[in-house]
TrEMBL record:
InterPro entries: JINGUBANG-like, WD40/YVTN_repeat-like_dom_sf, WD40_PAC1, WD40_repeat_dom_sf, WD40_rpt. Residues 11-24 have a biased composition (Basic and acidic residues). This is Transducin/WD40 repeat-like superfamily protein. PANTHER family: F-BOX AND WD40 DOMAIN PROTEIN, PROTEIN JINGUBANG-LIKE. WD repeats lie at residues 209-250, 251-281, 298-330.
Amino acid sequence: MKGSSRGNHIFSEENSIRGQKFDKLQNSPEHNESTFTISSPPDYGPDYLMGAEEAAPVSPLKKSPWSAHMNISDDKNNSNDSSETTNERFSPNVLMGSLVREEGHIYSLASSGDLLYTGSDSKNIRIWKRHHEYSGFKSNSGLVKAIIIAREKIFTGHQDGKIRVWKVSSKNASNHRRIGTLPTLKNYIKCSMKPSNYVEVKRNSKVLWIKHFDSISCLSLSEDQTLLYSASWDKTFKVWRVSDFKCLESITAHDDAVNALVVGFDGLVFTGSADGTVKIWRKELQGKGTKHFFSQTLLKQECAVTALAVNSNATIIYCGSSDGLVNFWEREKNLQHGGVLRGHKLAVLCLATAGCLVFSGSADMGICVWRRVDGDHICLSVLTGHTGPVKCLAVERDNENSRSGEQRWTVYSGSLDKSVKMWRVSEQAQPMVPNQKHQHYTSDGYCVPMLSSAPSFASRGGKMGSRRF
């Protein structure tokens, strides 16, 4: 793999901003330049490249794209400090590091333990392990819109409408080989023999029902990981059997692009579309297999639905929209509307949940961190630092660095600024201090301040230029 820094120490420290808390990291030209550009090779010392000859010149492009914004060892030492005040006893939410690789916009992320998978419009899928470039693989075509991990298999959804399947080598965990493309050639040929298997998608244009004819927007797995769901801009979602990659169903779900799909609870599947609706589909046993039936429309609005997520204990469904709002519904109340989170001025492009936290990434370049307490949601932080829309999120539990009585999470955010950022987030972090005019946002619509480093934007609009995300 060209340009790989595999095996090198690639999480370097930048002393100029070491130990700064998140609310002191300004979104300034100086900060952005140090994060996103390499003007000349910095002096990392002879031990920077492990195993490299000291006298050999090293191109800055071959050095690690990771940069650290906080001294992690100092952070661990400080975690032992005793304090009677809650503000000092629990960690603030901070930016820990940035990853920049000039391969294009970051469209997808997936994390599994200490591995992070990143997908971009370069068609490359890069794998990072403990902040080292560990491995990678490349598809033939189609930028990587979605990544999902099912045990030893990795499924990637692409702009060309195909789903590619990769498997980790049993001999070398860093090697991945492609073992299939959905639909498989065998199923495609078999299906093509019957004229009844063709569906009309445009005037005088027909395709096989097992094939997506537009971009894949997202992938999701059933709880037991036996079924793979793919949603597409072709207005459908499809159901695949993981064991043999056979397409079991194709459901024309919406009147416009399906932007989001998430497998929920009680055998329910939720889909969100550019047509402004969120629909619920019920999975039922039928003969030897399963079939999905329309259950109800959960939401109908003018602006596009752009993201969906179910919280970790499967009690709440969250929905992000192009108007910057996050609606939610509660399972315990028969999916009655629970409220609205008003943290963004532009479209919500991605959602993620972990513990009692909810993360919303937006076209306004910010990430809101919400904590659910007694049925209400309080905004703990607005993570700023990206210079483009935040397109995807991935969250991993940080057991190694969590303090006593505190749960920390590592949050990865991918952006159309071509970067991935890594944040440390604590469930017990104190909410941001309001500025002169603003209060906290809650489910009832009270507002929370953006940090001083957040950019200012025009008033929120009901629609964006494109309803597909």
